[in-house]
Write a structure and sequence with these properties.
With about 110 residues, this protein is an all-beta fold. Helices cover about 0% and strands about 35% of the residues. The chain is globular.
Length: about 110
């Protein structure tokens, strides 16, 4: 399902990251964390989503260099689907932009 960093109304705790599963228009929160403060507007933050079997992981690269050496992230497991889509959603933010989305298969050890 879609994975999203959100600025949802969470009691004034600041940004919130969630992994959501969406089925027939209904969303289920699989994991939530309040990561502290993200850099301000206009800052590019590389993000990575990994789905491997039942394991889901969402990370934001705080170094902003694509190395993912310093990340904020959350993980969840869900075995409901073996295939699906990835999406990004922002709520209650002032104009976030998602750019340069790349989806690729993980390397497989089954070869």
């Amino acid at each position: 399902g879609p994975t999203s960093p959100t600025g949802a109304n969470n009691g004034g705790l600041g940004p919130q990251m969630q992994i959501l599963k969406v089925v027939n228009g209904s969303s289920t929160v699989l994991a939530t964390m309040n990561p502290g403060t993200f850099p301000g507007g206009g800052t590019r933050l590389p993000m990575r989503v990994t789905a491997d079997g039942t394991s889901l992981r969402f990370e934001v690269d705080l170094n902003r260099d694509g190395s993912f050496a310093n990340t904020e992230g959350i993980s969840a497991t869900d075995s409901a689907f073996s295939t699906g889509n990835v999406g990004f959603w922002a709520f209650d933010n002032s104009g976030p932009v998602f750019d340069d989305l790349v989806v690729s298969l993980l390397d497989s050890d089954d070869d």
